[in-house]
Every structure is written in structure tokens, then in C-alpha cells.
Amino acid sequence: MHPNSAFRPKEDDLAALLVREIGFAAIFAGTPDGPRVAHAPVVLSDDGTMLQFHLARGNALTRHLDGATALAVVQGPDAYVSASWYADADQVPTWNYVAVEMEGMATKLDDAALVAHLDTLSATHEVRVGANPPWTRAKMNPALFGKMTGAIVSFEMRITAWRPTIKLSQNKSADERERVIAGMEATGHGALAQLMRHLGGDREGA
């Protein structure tokens, strides 16, 4: 988390919204072999207290996660901010970005919960891609599906701490922010510019 409180979202549900919209995380944990990270699609529970994900059984992190404290990081758009975009010459370059950290203990899920997790994950994203009809595991040979699920392991992390950073130039004046937004758009970072307009406007001078 960035230490400047201006970059912490004021809305309680914003971090959860970003996790659900982005839907992909880096999972970090310490192991006897040193720190490890895995990358996985995630599903956040409706009440925002549980994060589910699955990893390949052969992933170096998999055998160490059950009962361990893990850190999941979901990252949104990011981009370099040129100091030349500011009217004030006494500025330095920086970076705007969106990141949500979640910490908690991970627990291995049983086979039934793994399948339920996969069903939820696919149903969520089939709607987003507009598949008609949407894909479901009912279209697969059950034996083949069972073989493929045997190659992965799913976990549920009970979230004990949220640490979001929404760094969108909220510490700058409205005029300076507009200059940064224009710079973002000119350099092909339209998603970040849109977030700055949508999320940052009510944080002026925070």
C-alpha cells in the first residue's frame, strides 16, 4: 500500500469491485525454498471475505499453501507520468497505478469445492465474453474433466486485511490532473485516463 492516504479509496466497496472486475491475481507466500509467487484467476465471495483460486498441482507454491499466510495482489492499469505534463516546473516523474493487496490464511479445498469454484469462475466469465450458449463442463466428457481437474488444486483464502492503492494523481490540483489525463490519453493509456476521471475527481486535495 502506498503510504500517502490520498491514494486509498474512500468507498468501502471499491477494492472489492476492482478485484471482481479484474479477476486475476498474483499469489505470494513464503516457502522453505524461499518466497514464491503464482498467477491465477480469482473469485471473490459475495461478502468480500473469501478469495478462491486454483493452481497447477505442479506449481512450486501449491504444496506449501495449505494453512499458510498468503498475499494476493490484483493489479489494474498503470502508466508513467511525465513531469513535462505539469504546468509547475518543480515536479518529478512518477507512476500512476491501481493495486489491491489482500492477506489471509489459505486453505486447500476438497474436490467438490474445486468443481464448484470452476463452475463459478467459468459462469462469471462466459457471461462477460457473451458466449451463446455459454460453455459449461456438461459439454465435456466427464472422465476427461475429472482427469484435468486432477491436475489442479484449489484454495480459499480468508481475507484478514485489505490494502488497496488507487494512485491517480489525487494529490495534484484539478488543472494538473487534467494535464495528466490528456498525457495518458495521448500515450495510449485510455483505461487509466478513464479511471482518473471516474474515480479521482472527488478526491481533490485529499
Write the layout of secondary structure elements.
Blueprint: H1 14-22, E1 24-31, E2 34-44, E3 50-56, H2 62-65, E4 69-81, E5 94-108, H3 111-129, H4 142-149, E6 152-167, H5 174-186, H6 190-199
Helix pairs in contact: 5-6
Low-confidence stretches: 202-206
Strand line-up in the sheet with most strands: 1-2-3-6-5-4
**Tally of domains:** 1
The profile of the biggest β sheet is: 6 strands, antiparallel, barrel
Number of strands: 6
CATH architecture grouping: Roll
Q: Which term fits the overall shape?
A: elongated
Average of per-residue pLDDT values: 93
Annotation field: number of helices: 6
Q: Determine the CATH topology.
A: Pnp Oxidase, Chain A
Radius of gyration: 20 Å
At the fourth level of CATH, the homologous superfamily is Electron Transport, Fmn-binding Protein, Chain A
Describe this structure in words.
With 206 residues, this protein is of the alpha+beta class. It has a single domain, classed as Electron Transport, Fmn-binding Protein, Chain A (Pnp Oxidase, Chain A, Roll). Helix content is 31%, strand content 34%. The chain contains six helices and six strands. Helix 5 packs antiparallel against helix 6 (190-199). The longest helix is centred in the middle third of the chain and has 19 residues, at 111-129. It is elongated and about 65 Å long. Mean pLDDT is 93; it is low at 202-206.
